[in-house]
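Cont'd.
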Amino acid sequence: MARRDSLAGYLFIAPQLIGIIAFVLLPLCLVFWYSLHEWNVLANTFTYTGAQNYRMLLEDSSLPSVLGATALFSFGLVVLNMSLALLLAVLLNQKLRGIAVFRTLFFSPVVVSLVAWTIVWGFLLQKNGGINGMLLTVGIEGPNWLREPVTAMISVIVVQVFKNVGLNMILFLAALQGVPNELYEAARIDGASSFKQFRRIMLPMISPTILLTSIITIVGSLQVFAQIAVLTQGGPGVSTTVLVYYLYQQAFQFHFFGYGSTLSIMLFVIVAVLTFAQWQLRKRMVFYES
Amino acid sequence: MSNHISLKSCVAALAIGLSLTVFGNASAQNAVKLRMTIWSANEAHLKLFNDMAAGFKQTHPNVTVTYESLPFETYTTALTTQIAGGNAPDMAWIFETTAYDFVSSGALYPLGDKLAALKGYNLDEVSSGATERWSKDGKLYAYPFSTSPFAVFANNDLIRKAGAKTPAELIKSGEWTWEKAIETASAVGKTGKGGLIVRDFNYQNWQNLAAIWNGWGASPWSEDGKNCTFGEKPMTDALSFIHDAVFKNKAMPGPGENMDFFAGDAAMTITQISRASLLPKQNGFEWDLVPLPTGPAGEYALIGQAGIGVMQSSAHADIAADFVGYMTNPENSAKLAQFFPSARKSLLNAETLKKTNPLLSQEQLDKVVIAGISTGKVIPGHTGFAQIQQMVRAGLDSIWTPQTDIAAATQKICGQISPLLKR
Amino acid sequence: MKAELSPRAKVMVYGAMCVLLIPFVFPTWWMVTSSFKPVSEIFAFPPRLIPDSWDFTTYGQVFTLQPFAKQYWNSAYIAAIVTVGTMGISSMAGYAFARIRFPFANAIFMVVLLGLLIPSEVTIVPLFQLFLKLGMVNTHWPLILVPIFGAPSVFATFVMRQFFISLPAELEEAARVDGLSRFKIFTKIALPLSRPALASVAIFTFLHSWNLYLEPIVFLSSADKFTLPQALTQFTDAYGGPMWNIQLAAATLTALPVLIVFIIAQKHFVEGLAHTGLKG
């Protein structure tokens, strides 16, 4: 029985596993192989250079600011995304008439094409665009959002958050609705305030969801590319050049496929380490395991 | 779906194989498929190109040419991805800015001798100024099928409404200088409309500013491309002038301000003459087309180019070269010229141009098009341009603020790009 | 929290939600209305909430400038195949990882999870070479095969695994005693129970495929094979300048059907997720 079960197990996972080997592991190995080469696409030369591209990582004077921008972007994105998602989920978890309409509207950007969403925000964030137009009606002269380093970073984060926060919001909402009502009632009888209920009951109960969504969000934040390409092209200066955009520039715009591959490997290592660290943290942070 | 197609092509291959054995005429019957990557998806363009492919088929019945429209914005990226993946096209359009990369890398098939030898092709009538960017060591590697001068479009309605002098009036009184042009732009800019727009610049594509700074005799790097000249006086003067125009005189829309001349939002725009087709067909405004104003360094002109190259890696590079020769022979060049101005001298007369540019007057064609193409400098380019472009863009960003130190910014730019220029 | 709120609290919650809604709704509103504006009005400052003059010709042009109907079909059928395929592959794999004990299961699961961690920019060049060797460049195969079998389906597998873990084991025990094979247990018992999880997998997968941007750009080159996000960027004038109002019309056409489907299905979607036991 056990042997037959093992066989069944392997058969069940075979399509997925073969796919991962063919479309993830094999390409990843090839990327590593490229990273050991200098590859000039136009001249059609592909020369083995050993660890030279990796030494270049250390000498690349742009890399510190790129990593800084990446950290800032990911941190800002995760914090804003998670807190907004949680806030929306708590608001939507009320028994109110018409709540489904709100739920739909908050979720709607998720289904709008990313390219369209970003192009529209690109318009709205112009100096003479929609955002500043609205601010003007209440007497505020808005900044030149995409042209100043600080506001440009805020802009790309916020645009991304509004686009995708709906997903996390729904996940939180689902988790909140899974919290047994009796727990709240018990707390209310004990005279706990709303905030206390939130901190003592809700947060611990949904902490596994928080962990999972935070992992997905962090991993996702390190892969944000099209938004930056459309909105700021990494500028002003290099203030919004995050790692994946820098990688794209090196490989596809400057044609340094070898060095681009090296950056890919670095990005992969960063994502893997972060995810592993979070997974470890879960033992301490997550109060409740199903 | 796709199974279907491959089945079909198998049958087709089989049929060709059969016909070969039957008729035994291998070389003439070999089906040749050629693919050209282009950045236009315009219907009228494609129709013209397909007509040319059909025309070529009459003399080369075994050759089929197809065109692949890649998105304009990411054109070079998409093209190099194809090349990297081992799926290079047989022929490709190339931007003037990246021309040096393609020409110097050895990726292109040397076209020059082939074209020169074609009957009636008359390569010599293409000025050496126009082919310079596309040649290396005296060999032509891509044919510049489009040589389009930059000029100033003006919205005379807006300018008069602001009580300023139109370019035509300034030209008449011999005052068509940058100084005066900016005065006019500023007058309109202060009414809330846009002054002068350098089209497609958007505080990103700084190479288009050459349309202004060439009037100061400025250039980003030396003639041989080895030394950075951003920090030199002509360039800093020109940049100060532009900076004042933007931030002091409101004569140019600032960074992050979207305006469209062709929608009637601005007094003037600098762009290539081919954009005349964007002028509104109804509810339009009174417009004019004039040459670039004179700068402190005198009169000047600027052109943008686009080339067609044959990829060295193509299995049928020689046939592809024949096709490029057909597509750009004098007769077809005249047809192309309705969209892409030709650098052929025989086509550079007002009579021929009038046919393909019905919107422009005789005088405009003489002064702007013919003079521009024959005397214009090509907008800046360099090997490794994408990287240099990006570094300069990042460096210039610090200039596009009200308070700035232009000398320091340009010094910094030079510090960053010098190693790349020397490479 | 589930108790009825006081009227004052209700007003506050409604008010907060209305303010928060602005950045979510305004861009879409602007996209839809601007698709009816002439270009000059799109750039008007301050922006207009409702067009001064309505231009309905943009929607016609969407279909004449590009084979948009064909592109619509491409996106729709690719997304449909990917969704169904992913549901199959990931529910099988998720079930095995959750319920079947076999050697190296955990190690293999970790390997599969790698797929979650790799941005598609990283592997696009080798994938391009692979599909070129297979003769599948400029076909829809890469856009179908990679999402179903490759990295994008890993998240689905993960969701399904979490769901099956939370399923009480007793449900299967009886069937096993009856001598049903694993496959039968899976199809007859586990799969029908997993409908809510499958529903959320379906929606995630469909959206992912519908919005895919980088891959179509790299793999497809002829306009009649394009997918919608790629087609959106193709509405340009003869010189590559974007035709904004037509792009926005096309973007509206791209977004609306998905939005409508979501509005109809959203109740099931949220409840589906609530049952997935997506709890880490």
